[in-house]
Amino acid sequence: MSIYCSIARLAAVCWIISTASLFAAQNALIVIGTTGTSSIGNDLSGVAQTIHDGLVQRGFSPDSIEILGTSSSGGKVTRDAVQASLKKRETLAATDEFWLVLLGFSGRTGDGERAFQVSGPRLTAPDLKSALNSIPAQQFVLIGTSDSGGFVPILLQANHSVLAATREEGEIDLPRFPEFWAAALKENPKAGWKEIAARAAVLTDQAYANDNLAEGEHARLGDPATGKILEAPFGVDSTAQAAEKPQSDGSMALINASDIKVDIRKPNAEWEKQEATPETKKLIADARAVPNPDGFSSLLLEQRLGYSVGEDRSAEDFVMQRVYIEKEDGVERWANFTFPQDPPAVTTKLEAARIIQPDGSSTVFNPAKMPPATSVSSEMGTALTTVFMPDAHAGCLIEIAYRTRHLLDASLPEFTEELPVQVDIPALHTELQLQVPAQNQLHFKLRNNDQKPTDVTANGIRTISWKLDNLPAFEALPYDPPARDFVVALDISSLKSWDDFAIWYRRLARGSDIQDATVKAKADELAEGAKTRLDKIRRAYEFVSALRYVAIEFGVNGIRPRTPAVVLQNRYGDCKDKANLFIALLTNMGIDGQFVLLNRFSSTDIDFPSWQFNHAIAFVPKTPDAGQPDDLWLDTTDSTAPFPTLSPGDIGRNALVFDKDSAKFLAVTAPGKEVTEVKEDWKFQAIDGLTYRGTLQKSWSGLAEYDMRSAIRGRSPRQRDFILQTELTRQLPNADFTKLDLTPADDLSIPMRLDSEVNVPAFPLPSPRAGIDVASYFAAPERNRPLLINNGQKLHLSQTVETAFLHDGPHPVVHPGPPFDQTVAGIHATIKLEQTAGGGWNRTAELTVDQPEVAAADYAAVRKMLRDWTDQLSR
After folding, report:
1. In CATH, what number is assigned to the domain containing residue 684?
2. Residues 821-848: what's their mean pLDDT?
3. Does residue 158 share a domain with residue 22?
4. CATH number at residue 330
5. SS3 category, 485
6. Is the pTM of this model over 0.90?
7. pLDDT 10s digits, 199-237
8. In 465, 527, 620, 744, which residue has its Cα 20 to 30 A from 335's Cα atom?
9. CA angle 243-249-254, nearest 5°?
10. Is 179 helix (H, G, I), strand (E, B) or coil?
11. What are the C-alpha distances in Å from 502 to residues 457, 493, 498, 576, 661?
12. What is the total count of domains within the chain?
């Protein structure tokens, strides 16, 4: 389209909407009256929010739009409250624009006057006329209520355009027109008043036709230019308008599920059976014909994913999926759907749900029968609704489509979102669409996919679309690096830079570092008698680590730490609470501790500023002159990591470190030269030709010690011994391990060590398999992605076996062979076996992993080396 044509179209729009002058103020009031039931109230709250978003996209300032009647605005509305709100609009100028929307029910007073139902005395049409006549602005009024047509002749005048959801008489049910008027506004926010009304009338007609219902409402428009009351389409030539409008101008609504032809014939039934049609027979035949060479239990034949963001950063996402169930074990994954449903903050609307049976017959869900939400879940943080698909089995096709609206969380002034695209089964065709206001500087990134989108801006809306064919399943495997580095997803953020992110987070966390005398007193108590800086840090660390981990993360508490005094008083907290207390204790000891955000067990894209964090720890910069030669990263979340060992999932992550006035990314490293280490020292004596007795001394450090403490912490003595004996007999089958002496798991100041007696009726050459079995990492013959050993921390395994013979009988013959000494891709393995002067044997085996991430190209070579090493140890 040429620049000239663009300007011409813009001029035409401005002519149609005479009040859209750049110099005119725009103002709106949306009122929800009494509704009778909470479900109707929730539905109308959703309609009001859609209207709000459409007006913002039209150019209204969010501050100029008032909503009365929702729970967030004070609940029930009175006649006085509406009149008071209208009176505030009397300051608008004649060139300004005022929109009024009434939602709910209307009726008649005892005197026969039209009246809007509110709490207490009703708001009559004469009341409304008097209030509107005192407002000089050009006015656009929607009476979106039952029995609303009678308002039109009363309110209509030269500067009042009045639209009613029903005709003047006889239509007393709650109308659906306002919902579709809101959708039409959101679909094309810059359209004229008549065009929006005409489009809403078309959508209303279609809805009644699709539901096989007689239409019980007929909208009426009072036209101030002619003084006439018009029926739909209100003088709008929709055919000519459609022909004039290019199909690619980007002004379409969010992608939808229009080809899921759900025809509700029994409006009172939740599910209804329907006979096969040519359409359903073709769908099931096409699904059966799709190749499935890898034998997946189900295939995602098609998915449409849409996401729209309003000017106020409220959002709506749309999901449509068409899944073919190949095998019975795919039913559980795809036959139950759970949706967030916590209005007005989160509202999910089911648009379509259908199961097509192998014979083409179908079971159709009535979206109007969506069950109520359950109670709030402590994990999800919101109430939920679940829809169970009946009679789903292998050979079925499941179709579902739904929208979820999220109101802006006022506690989070910036907007970030991460939308999954790739799933755990193959997706043959994916359509992805993002809609944002053209002037809103939102950033986006399709992660782990190079497909270029189409990008169109029209009518103030920017629409970015992708079409992705044959997305493979993402099948998580053991020892994977973070999935975020591989899975296709759409990232959205309103944050322009990490500096902006740091400012945002500091603002949210302001005041959370306030301390009191109790914190200082605890710091003094912990520091008393400590001789070194490291000893002070260790004491504070062990105290905070021992506090209970409890996460209560609703609202801003999911991001903002609680104050140190509160955590100290409660004796519990989540990761950020405990890190905050730990840093406060260090500060009172004169030690600089810094707050850290990271994505534990995952990753952070440092080139895309957004909320990508799920964990908080502390950073203590090195001060060699004060006796701390290395940087310390300290995670006080749980009580099983001894000082200064880091918990699993932290090492190697890009962490955002908050200093006094700045924030920067640093890579989390293990303290000093620390590696995960497992040491074993076996000593055997052959009493006779059949019996060997001996001892085992074993120690753990790093992540191996963390895992061992986690495994036995809180166990009874017999449970603890069983766990240890199970691990040890994997190394030396048929052996008896007795007198197990293990250091206490709850004392972090004592390194983990095991002393045990061993009796075994065979020549003892134990394998190094307990604790960390590196060979098991390489069970598969090949791998198409990197492999992460020991969660990314360096590793050292060492084992010595000494055997002495105390009898004169024949001794086992051992052929030492050449020493084993190989290095592949940063992994070094050795075996040394030698005979002693007394006829015994000593064997030393070591495995050193200096490069914990094994590239896919090195996988086969490392696998062969480790198998050779293991085989030689087993001889």
Report:
1. 2.60.120.1130
2. 89
3. yes
4. 2.60.40.3140
5. helix
6. no
7. 999 999 888 888 777 788 999 998 887 788 888 888 775
8. 465
9. 105
10. helix
11. 31, 14, 6, 16, 9
12. 4
